[in-house]
Predict the 3D structure of the following.
Amino acid sequence: MDTRKSAHPVDEILPLNQLFLYGLQHVLAMYAGAVAVPLILANALGLPKEQLIYLINADLFTCGIATLIQTLGFWKMGIKIPVIQGVTFAAVTPMILIGKAHGLTGIYGSVIIAGLITFLISSYFSRLIRFFPPVVTGSIITIIGVSLLPVAVRWAGGGIPAAPNFGDMKFLGLAFLVLILVVFFYRYFKGFLSNIAVLLGLFAGLLVAIPMGLVNFSAVATAPFLGITTPFFFGMPTFDLASVVSMTLVMLVVMTETTGDFIAIGEIIDKPITQEDLTKGLRADGFSTFLGGILNAFPYTAYAQNVGLVGLTRVKSRFVVAAAGAILVVLGLFPQIAAVVASIPTPVLGGAGIAMFGMVIASGIKTLSKIKFDNNHNLMVVAISVAVGLIPLAVPSIYQKFPLELQVIMNSGITAGSIVAVVLNAALNKVDKV
């Protein structure tokens, strides 16, 4: 009798064609977020177009490497679950301020040190996992989904709320069509085709958008064929104490958000995240951020938008996301291919995003449905943490008078809600000892 244990679905290696298509689906789901940070930073610092293109290439390339480390594991790093890595939005404002004062070399100096600090403290931070019982993780997963939903809505409306044509009927109609197609493919297709419902919806939406005049391939012709990322391209890093402190604070926020993302994925793939797993995952975040500072990129974190995709497709293999990492590396090396991906209109992404981010919310509700609310304080933990997490969504400018350091924390509903959930649960409910 064969007594060997069957491999967990997370370790399943699928056929190459499936790995590629599932991986491409993950890349398309996170691509807009991945390139948004270098776009915002370059515009804020007034960088020329050539430098912007270089930043995007470097970011995609490093995203790929970070994802490969996280999914496949390297030395004592990598949580080995289907989690994709991308640049964190929590670092945008601090990087702009640092860049205006000390240039790009000042940004990269602070990123390098913050990444190194994150790497070193990962084993200590991971001990906090005992403060993340289901009532906390369910609340955090719900907050993640609700916090992401406005991103999909902005995409559906055309991308930029301040634009005169934002919310145009053709944008919303296209987004709604993609959403309907995703649901249709998911429901009526079987097996592999059902699992790539998002990918099929994106491509169908792209085909519909072409005759509508919403697709512009001009960037493909102007983009360079090959783009090699070289260390310290903009010069040797410079180190400013205040900048390092600011970026380290950002990474503490990132570690909190990443912990929530890891646990969320663990819930979806039915693989409990241990303290050792969390240490390896956070350590990979720190190393990838350190590497980002060397390769002219940025701080990295788990991308929450792909959590919903894992739940929607029901494909739990980490090698699928490793394939996505390989695709990102290729996109970073060949800007023309990246330009093709970037040509997908935001309304098309918006329709798919509503389905994916809604799935994250549903996963949070599913987790909360398993806990008891009688004879304990769980209801208050959920109520207050979710409410605090939604404050910056309701009124984005509410914390504008706060010091920058506190704004970094409070403007991230995921971070603020996570902290409140952990603190309230520890104060109101019993927390098990290690």
The mean pLDDT is 89. Residues 9-369 form one domain. Residues 36 and 306 are 16 Å apart (CA to CA). The radius of gyration is 21 Å.
